Every structure is written in C-alpha cells, then in structure tokens.
Amino acid sequence: MPHKLELQSVFASYGATSVLKDVSLRVAAGGITALLGANGAGKTTTLRVISGVLRASAGRVLVDGEPLASRSPHAVAKLGVGHVPDGRGTLAELSVEDNLRVGGWLLPRDAQVREQAERMYEIFPALKPRRLQQAGTLSGGEQQMLAIARAMMPRPQLLLLDEPSFGVAPLVVERIFEVLRAINRSEGVSILLVEQNAKLALRTADYAYVLDSGRVALHGDSAQLRENETVQNSYLGA
C-alpha cells in the first residue's frame, strides 16, 4: 500500500533539549495510524514537525513522496495537510462561522468556502445552531468538533489530530471518533492520531506506533498491539 506520510530518521529539539531521536514511521494512504506514548514521549512534537511548526534537526518528512524540507506551516497546509493541535486552537473571539471561514483560506472561491462550511455542519450538526456563537463559549466537545471542522475546511488529504478526546465528555468522544472513521472511509482522508486513550485509539486505527522517550519502541497492526503484553500493562490497564 502506498504511503501518504513517511518520517525517515527524524530528530528534533527544543533548544538544547532533544525530544525526537531517530523517529521513523509511516501512514498508509487512506489509513488511520495511531501514535501512543506517555506524556513527554514526543507525540505532539512529531505532529509539529510534520506540520512545519517545528523544524527537524535531521531526517526527512515526506508527503506523497515529496520531502517537506523546511517548508512553513502555510506551505505544508497547501500540500493537503490539516493539523488539529493540542488545546484545539480555535479562535475564541470569533464565531463558529468565522472560524470555518478562516479554515477555508485555501479554497479559491467564496462559494466553495460556503459549500464546505455546509458540509461541516452536516458532519457536525451540533455546530449549525451555534454558527453565530463565539467559539470560546462552546462546550469542550463542541470546540473539538469545531477544531476538526476548521482543519477539514481546505479538504486536506492528511489529518493530524492531537488528543481529540482531551477534556471531552465520553459520549461526545464516541461521536467524534465515529466522525473521524466516517471521514476516513467516505472521503479517503489519511489520519495520524495522537491519543492518550489507547484503547480507543487502537480500536480506531489500522496501525500504531508507541513512542518512548523520543524513540519508536513498538509498532504493528493495532490488533497485534492490543495483545502485546507491554502495551497492555503500560497503556491498556491490563
């Protein structure tokens, strides 16, 4: 199966602090890949390197076989990469509608922005009656829906998600993950999912990697990792 995303021996640091140490991973085209690990393992840093927020100090990141090199986040987005960061990153003072319009900056015509916004309201119907409401006044689950919807506005083919379940009620989490699976199936969007809820992540993803102190400690089919004793003891509460 072709790869939508590939990291080859990536290293990354914050100043003098080394975070990623020779990380290699792949996301299959049309697949969902989970990235697991304890706090501080390097999961968020991995997404920031892919999206261009942080530059790798060594190694390569490729999307559809094309090296990203030192591209800016804007340039990475133009290649079809959407990023939902930790903390969601919605524009709190703007309305739901205006957040979506900001997310549609890559679409060439206003009509396409309106059409895609309506598509997002179909995917996340809870947002439609709140379209004129300030994003900062939404519930945690609604803000997460908006963050995903905004990232989907330019019609990306690769979606990076950082802890979409964080601070969200369990029933809403299930709904969000149903939507992610639907987006993957119906629109062919490849997904790289960082998620603390390992059980949910492994139930959702086809393949998974486990980071430990900035290195890939384990990887394999999600079904295999669910049976792995180390994963069970460390992440699944077995």
What does this structure look like?
The chain is of the alpha/beta class and 238 residues long. It folds into two domains: 1-44 and 52-69 and 157-162 and 180-189 and 203-211 and 221-238, 3-Layer(aba) Sandwich (Rossmann fold), CATH 3.40.50; 88-155, no CATH class. It is 37% helix and 27% strand. It has helices at residues 43-51, 73-78, 96-103, 110-123, 140-152, 170-187, 198-204, 222-226, 229-235, and strands spanning 3-14, 17-28, 32-36, 58-63, 66-67, 81-84, 158-162, 190-194, 207-212, 215-221. The strands form two sheets. Strands 6-7-8-3-9-10 form a six-stranded mixed β-sheet, with helices on both faces. A hairpin with a 2-residue loop joins strand 9 and strand 10 (215-221). Helix 3 (96-103) packs parallel to helix 5. The longest helix is centred in the C-terminal third of the chain and has 18 residues, at 170-187. The chain is globular and about 45 Å long. The model has no long low-confidence stretch (mean pLDDT 92). This is ABC transporter ATP-binding protein. It holds the Pfam family ABC_tran. It comes from Caenimonas aquaedulcis.
